[in-house]
Specification:
146 residues; alpha+beta; Aspartate Aminotransferase, domain 1
Length: 146
């Protein structure tokens, strides 16, 4: 395995420590908002950036970049277009400036949408599994005494 020269990030505090004060403050606010929306979520590092995991699945990521901060909600923008029109977005990313952080209400909506999506996927998997092949009765083999 190649070494990139960077030390492995062990937690969100380690990730935030070297950041400039403005980015650190913006991401701390985002962290606090996610934590308040889902108190039982576990803080973790996923893909070398801070993340929150709920029931074994990541529900949100965030990061600092050279010229902005990013939030990765893991959900479709459908229904959020109006809320996001002032932000630079791409397929799975919302980019914002540290001096103009994401509104708390928007973050809450996005987190709830991600949790609902995960719940729907879990339900679909369970339904598919229950509809799959019927269980076969297995014949018991009786060993003959030697």
């Amino acid at each position: 395995m190649k070494s990139t020269g960077k030390a492995a990030v062990r937690g969100i505090d380690d990730y935030l420590a070297p950041l400039p004060p403005d980015k650190k403050a913006a991401l701390q606010k985002l962290r606090k908002t996610i934590r308040a929306a889902v108190p039982r979520a576990e803080e973790t590092i996923s893909y070398q950036i801070p993340a929150f995991r709920l029931d074994g699945k990541v529900i949100a990521w965030f990061a600092a970049a050279a010229k902005h901060c990013s939030y990765f909600p893991g959900v479709s923008w459908k229904g959020f277009e109006e809320d996001l029109k002032k932000y630079d977005t791409s397929k799975g990313t919302i980019r914002f400036q540290p001096d103009d952080p994401l509104p708390v209400t928007l973050v809450r909506k996005l987190v709830r949408a991600r949790i609902a999506r995960n719940a729907a996927q879990t339900k679909q998997r369970a339904e598919r599994a229950s509809r799959s092949r019927p269980k076969r009765k297995t014949a018991r083999r009786v060993r003959k005494a030697r």
